[in-house]
Amino acid sequence: MKNRYYTLFAALLFALTSCFAIDSPESTAAPINHSIWDGLLKKHVDVKGFVNYGGFAKDEAQLDKYLALVSDNAPASSWSTNEKLAYWINAYNAFTVKLILNNADQNISSIKDIGSKIKIPFVNTPWDVKFIKIGGKEMDLNNIEHGIIRKQFKEPRIHFALVCAAKSCPPLRNEAFVASKLNAQLDDQGVRFINDSFKNEVSASKMDVSKLFDWYGGDFKKTASIETWINKYAKTKAKAGTDITYKEYYWDLNGKL
Fold first, then answer.
1. Is the pLDDT of residue 19 over 70?
2. CA–CA distance, 3 with 241 (Å, rounded to integer)
3. Where are the extended beta strands (E) located within the chain?
């Protein structure tokens, strides 16, 4: 029953992706400097991706300053692909932190505690909260992930970089993504994520991996098999033909309020 539920979930996710599509707002601005976000990450996220949300709360004025910079400077067509992608990944992660802070007084233990008390799939979830404004357009986290990043960039490694504030998510990187080293940062995220035994277990005869590879399997399979992607980053390589199973996904916060 559980496997059938997740299969249905994945099918619905891909079917509804177009519903999240949003044209990227555009400005004529030069690429923004992510140094404020970089400083906050270095200060409040440890090397394993554990987030000190209480620390972020104390520095919320700085976070708001960075988010205002993001909001007022949507990517322009003159930006390089890496400049645009780094912008959107940082925007997603920074606004996710802001969403947690906006709801910290509710003593939430999971991002899924945010939103309507009546939980209807893809309706009134935290990812549907319209609290983001970029280039004068209101949007939510789903718009950024599904309507912009997945739609425009066709880059499977974004699933190692976008962090939804949950324990089973990839680690929140404690530095900002930047165009000049984006490729190396995404690969490093893959190494860190795949070799975290809480999130993925890979041996010569075993691949018990994150549900992200199930939910977003279509994104990965456009360029290589799931097995190939996992072995690319796993320190121990699984033998060809090894069965792939998927771990339970834990939505508890990836840090402390």
1. no
2. 21
3. 51-52, 132-134, 137-139, 201-203, 206-209, 244-246, 255-256
**Residue 77 confidence (pLDDT):** 94
Place of tokens 């718009």: 143
Residue 30 in this model has a pLDDT that exceeds 50: yes
- Report the relative pairing of strands 201-203 and 137-139 from DSSP bridges: unpaired
- DSSP string across 44-106: HB-TT--EEHHHHHHTHHHHHHHHHHHHH-PPPTTS-HHHHHHHHHHHHHHHHHHHHHHTGGG
What's the mean pLDDT in 7-31? 55
**Contact present, 156 and 165 (Cβ < 8 Å):** no
pTM: 0.89
Give me the pLDDT at residue 18, please.
44
